[in-house]
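note to self: the first set is below, dont mix up w the second
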Amino acid sequence: MLIFSNALFDYAHQVKSLGNTLFELLSEALGLKPSHLTDIECNQGQVLLCHYYPPCPQPELAIGTSRHSDGGFLTILLQDEIGGLQIFIEDQWVDVAPTPGAFIVNIGDLLQLISNDGFRSVEHRVLAKNVAPRVSIANFFGTHIDPTSTRIYSPIKELLSDKKLPLYRETLASDYIKHYYSIGFRCENCYFSLPVMNCGM
């Protein structure tokens, strides 16, 4: 067990480093200085979840993981060769084929909010079609580790102008977390359900 724990902590450390690099690249893609997203602590609140899906000989009777988008800033996913992950794009579900040695990176709802739609979160699901056990490891960067946070999130001011108005109201992190978990996976499109800014208000 100790060997497994050490390996898991080392893995989490390496993925945190990868996340920091990705946040630098995403900052630059938005036209900001490379450290901007880490300066506002998007790389904090790291949560690592290991998923195990047992063999499913009757997939028509199983749910898998239903349609949803991730609530944080960024998700780095490692999946095995079994597959089953799908993303929703252009009104259809598309398989995400496993690629040995590759990670899957998902934009989360909070990054959509602060980037003012510069980046869009992606709906996804997992089908229970595996005839062998399926394992995946998801690393989430977000605020969900601290539901008492007093941090406020809103579109980044440097991304706004007279021609690019804010699309979302500012939101308290704790309120956002409550909202996200109150919705859960039950809505057909919980892709992004924070209040949209009414520019006439």
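second set (the one i keep forgetting abt)
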Amino acid sequence: MNRKFSVAPMLDWTDRHERFFLRLISQHTLLYTEMITTGALIHGDRSRHLDFNYEEHPVAIQLGGSDPVDLAECAKMSEDHGYDEINLNVGCPSNRVQSGMFGACLMAKPKLVAECVAAMQDVVDIPVTVKHRIGIDENETVEELFEFVEVVAKSGCKSFIVHARKAWLNGLSPKQNRDIPPLRYDVVHLLKQTMPELEIIINGGICDLDTAENQLKYIDGIMMGREVYHNPYILAEVDQRFYQSETPVLSRQQIMELMFPYVEKELAKGLRLHTMTRHILGLYNGLPGAKKWRRFLSENATKREAGIDVLYKSLECLG
């Protein structure tokens, strides 16, 4: 599994429609699902949570949970469904996640995380990875971070995705936790230097490919999140710059033309147009007519009767 460049799991954003769209722009970027809780998979609509398009590969699923037995069951489901990687969420700071005893609060329980990872690895052949913060609340020393990673690595986990901010579990909202705690790239770099045998992926605050490429001097891979969602065409040069691909970069128009058949197929299943078009609103960012295009889609794609003609007509806004 090549994790040199990946797009972060983002709740309510990285669904299968978003992932299909991003795959049209980059063939090699590793894509992640939204976080899916073990309870949702075990007791809910499994198909709704697990289904994805074959074209999305390579694609990883992120699980949220803290019970080794439940996580093992969900990991096996995920592998059987065709995912390329299982990722355990040890980074989400929301109150709802804390009450369910998973997410960032698990950084205080490295032995439990290790048990969870081991349980999943026992039942699947695909990689199991962990995404976490550099610390939580007052627990932010380098020694505590290293201890967490060391304990979890002993369970067999070889790949860690590190959001280079601590998380405040009390006092800050999830949104504030993405911005207010300062970025500490140096801590993630030191983690890699100290444990060179591990694959260390850095996440947090990276907004352009030059910065991302520079990070590869210190760590093994980059994960970008919100910047990709709001400015998806940033992925257009990822295959050439990070994977030495010789495939030509597609234009925005070519990407839209590839989206039309997908949208028509999903509309035929009864999905609303807005379900898909909400993810593509940033495609023309910075170009003439982009604001008019976004407004047209936002106002018209949400209508119950909206069909593929709305998407075709929206392109007229771009001149």
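remember for set 2: The first strand starts at residue 5 and ends at 7.
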